[in-house]
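In this supplementary section we document a worked example of the pipeline. Step one takes a protein sequence of length 106 as its only input; no multiple sequence alignment statistics are reported here. Step two produces a three-dimensional model, which step three serialises into structure tokens for compact storage. The input and output of this example are shown verbatim.
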Amino acid sequence: MAQYQIFTDGQLIEYTDGVAIYRNGSLNKSFVLLKAITTLGFDGIEDTDWITLYALSAIGTLGVFRNGVRGGDFVLDEAMTALAFDGVESLDEGLTGDWIEIYIFE
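The serialised model returned by step three reads:
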């Protein structure tokens, strides 16, 4: 059974192991992975106290993403219409369909 986390624009999830602090989610309609690099972390200034490790610009206009496990792989998907992940997968690079698989981390 697949398992997902959905991110609407502006929603970030924070992860820490007591040593490092990361956030990932949707920010400015891009899927991002951020890392705190000082004790101020995300309360501080970008590129001084925290950095963007990864940013993937949205293909669509919603800025809604999901990541999770499907078929044994970690995947990143993007919603293309208001039906989003309740609709059908795009099989033509987002021209039709309600969501698109962006990346598979095998």
